[in-house]
Amino acid sequence: MNPPLPSFYAIHLECLLVVWGILLLLVDAFIPVKDKRTIGYMAAGFVAAALLYSFTLHPLNDVTFFHGMYRFDAFALYFKRLFLLALTMVLVMAAEFSDRMESGVPEFYALLMFCAVGMLILASVNDFILLFVALELVTITFYILASYLRRQVPSLEAGTKYLILGALSSGFNVYGIAYIFGTTGTTNFDKLAEILRAATASGTLAPPFVFGMLLVLTGIGFKIASVPFQIWAPDVYQGAPTPVTAFLAVGSKAAGFALLLRVLFAGLLPVRSTWTMLLFVLAAATLLYGNLGAIPQRNIKRLLGYSSIGHAGYMLMGIAAVNALGAGAVLFYLGQYAFTVLCAFLAIVAATKATGSDEIPSFSGLGKRSPILGLALFLSMMSLAGIPPLSGFFGKFQLFAAVIQRAATDWHYYILAGIGAAAVVISLYFYLGVGRAIYLQEAAAEAGPIAVSKPMRAALYVCMAAMIGLGIYQRPLVEAAIKAANVFGLR
Amino acid sequence: MEFFLTTAVLLPLAAAFLAFLFPARKPGAIRALAIFATGVSLLLILYIFSQFDRTQSGYQFVHGIEWLPSLGINLKFGVDGISMTLLLLVGFVSFAGTLISSEIHERQKEYYILFLALTTGISGTFCTMDLFFFYFFYELAVIPMYLLIGMYGSLPPGKHGRTKEYATMKLTLYLTAGAVLALIGLLMIYYSTGTMDIQKLQRNIWVSTNMQMRAFPCLLFGFGFLASMWPFHTWSPLGYAAAPTAASMMHAGVLKKLGAYGIIRLALPLLPEGARHWADLIAILACFNILYAGWAALTQKDWKFVIGYSSVSHMGYVLLGIATLNVVGVSGAVLLMFAHGVMAALTFALIGFFYHQTHNRFVPDLSGLARKIPFIGVCMVMAVMASSGLPGFANFVSEVMVFIGAWKQGSTVFRVATICAVWGIVVTATYLLWAVRTSFFGPFDEKWNMLKDATTFRQKFPYALLLAVLLVVGFWPRLLTDVIQKSVAVSVVSRVTSDGEEASRDKNVAPTSPVTRAAWVNATGNRESTRR
């Protein structure tokens, strides 16, 4: 069944968000300042409705739109849903966070919306030009969002760091795109794959093309915070307002991986021999850097910054395996990672409201002060560490399975699996460090119970149910992920 | 009737979820729920044991559903002689552990939720027939343990200079390291055979030699961490010393057996060539376990450290039994896992009983306790007797089986190992008798006048239950050895050596020696083994 206006059908989710974002800005003029929270909850409710609505849509797998620039296939739809989910939770978080902001609260919500629009488009890109435009839409809104608490030095520092490094990586990116266009004469992924297939068959692959490809991978490596472009992550995660950090950790990272998968598996698959080894090494280095770096951290947002580098490493493992299982595993991982990380940040936002500090010792006795926040934070840490019956466990299981499957034909991958295994053990140490504060240590004497608002509670329950549910009954998400990954036709 | 087994395994977990909904201010109800769940689970296990067909070697009570077809994962439970024995152990220890948990007064809700989750994790590993769920349940047991020790444990300061936080972190990291290593081995098996079904894998699928050599060390050392194989044992005495009583019981009694069970269930039958290649090393490491840990136990002064090192030492006998690769030795190892499990649980329960009142378990500080707590004293003496391998207790039978198996194996390494192991019994008797004599007999110290003995039936029951199990199996070992030996012969040993060939005349079981195997492959047309 084809919809009447296929091109519009392919982008109408984005259009909805843009319209709602602009409406939010207008609503600001008519609603009293003290209702800032309500606007946030309204926005979250709307996005949640859009998320539910997106499940009535069906992918159009074999067609492209706007002159081959845009796809609305199962892969794109999977990521669009993921971003809508992330946006819903982040808006709840932002509403909770709004009284810590001086001004511009509705603009904050609207910026989050526009940023999400960029991500939704990124999920669909099939052309380097659109890739660059969508990527800039995401990155530029993040420059503003990261430094939103403009009287706080750490927030400004975060914004500045992200701006400088982000601009640099955008430069690399566009420079690389120019090289690719120069050597192959196209920016379209499908045409590029054809040209590369012919070029590798005849052995005429130009070295400048490889150079351009590396530059593009640099730009994407910055988004996913993989070594050696990871330096910004801990500082920005720590300094940015917590909802922004959560959106960076979930949305921006997933967008980066969506791009990486699309570029590598749709455009650059014919030249896989040139980048497989590179990704292998990057995965190993990223795993070690993220997990070792997290050990001495005392600030939980900074810890999660390092942890997000480590998780980029796990997912790179799945991509480096270059098989269908690996691609599906990355998609599953991102899906469950969204729930896990959002759960952690929701709990952090609610707890820091009472404690006023992001330092891990300030979470001491959280399990007693607020059983639900303690449980949510503890479960999300365990899911990040990959402990059953939580969803992070199954995500890691699939990634390891993909690597071991590949290792049957190339024994080097046993080394990667070994490094991944070591990383799991190391990571358990620092995640349990948070768990120790929550349950093993006593709260300070004057610390009382922490109140948790109703929307917050609902969001936490959703995340926890998803973590446990997807950890035990993985089938729905696994099948969705496999269906989405199938668009690449990997084996 | 098939779903009885599934119910017995999953009931504690279901109760844990249910307890989650109970208000925390009603600990009595939660405790009653926990006792009910573990009690019904034990009754179901006993019923399954009574209905267990003792003439068969394969899996019984098989029940399962398709879980994740894209990765070939099925949630499937079943028991054979080996897992039946160990399931009985879980049933007894978890029920006794719940009963003696009345000493916990704070945060009871979390305590029972964790304890019940731990129980399902362990019994699930023993009964699952799927590689994925084997790992799933195995890992499921780790985190409840971390919290149980960290939240409810106690570690008196001593020469070790450690806190309970340190002890529980060390335990968790060691166990996870082992688990991840084992996972890599399991995935290697999966990708070289294409199935996660343990039953299928044990019947007629062979992993290529090359892959066996790679995967066996992963499984051996991975599971070895949990089985406290020397030199990966250091987490164990410290962890037990810091754990609350019921957690020590579960851990020393049952959880540790998961490691040895993994080696018997997966490493030996699925990777037989690897097993033959590494058997001598296992035997040597087992001797280190027996003698080194025994020697370490001699110098300990804290009761829990004594028993902790003693349990490391006893795992040496289990590993030695496994290394023999013959029916007597491996069956002895399985029976010893059962006997030692019950014995270790009993000992830790008894230590918990007096430690709860004295807040002191330093052996030289205690003296003449038997005068105030005669019931506990008698139980302790019997537990120590069992541990030292006195006839009449299950431990005696199983240790003798291990020795016979090891001697029968014949090679010099095993002869020497047998001598070391027998010598280990003397060492065991030395430190255990010293500890019992010093703290329970001798002049009575007035400061222990406030001790109260277990007097009511409810107080005595858990100890009496465990002791009765030891005695019943000790006097009537065939109750268990029959079922163990049949399964060990067919599904483990016949795959590794020609020793179990006779028992494996079953058409479905592939012979193992290369010549007969080639003939069998021709006859049955089953070439799955030579896939790669």
How would you explain this protein's 3D organization?
The complex is a heterodimer of chains A (491) and B (532). With 491 residues, chain A is an all-alpha fold. Chain A contains 19 helices and 2 strands. A two-stranded antiparallel ribbon of chain A has the order 1-2. In chain A, helix 5 (128-146) runs antiparallel to helix 10 (242-267). The interface between A and B is medium-sized, with 33 and 35 residues.
SSE topology sketch:
The complex is a heterodimer of chains A (491) and B (532).
Chain A: H1 6-30, H2 36-54, E1 60-65, E2 70-72, H3 74-97, H4 105-122, H5 128-146, H6 153-184, H7 189-202, H8 207-224, H9 232-239, H10 242-267, H11 272-294, H12 300-320, H13 324-355, H14 366-369, H15 371-385, H16 391-407, H17 412-440, H18 454-472, H19 475-485
Helix pairs in contact in A: 1-2, 1-4, 2-3, 3-4, 3-10, 3-13, 3-19, 4-5, 4-10, 5-6, 5-10, 6-8, 6-9, 8-10, 9-10, 9-12, 10-12, 10-13, 11-12, 11-17, 12-13, 12-16, 12-17, 13-15, 13-16, 13-18, 13-19, 15-17, 15-18, 16-17, 16-18
Chain B: H1 3-21, H2 27-51, E1 60-68, E2 73-79, H3 81-99, H4 108-127, H5 131-140, H6 142-152, H7 164-193, H8 198-204, H9 209-226, H10 235-242, H11 245-270, H12 272-298, H13 303-324, H14 327-358, H15 369-372, H16 374-387, H17 394-409, H18 412-440, H19 457-475, H20 478-496, H21 514-524
Antiparallel strand pairs in B: 1-2
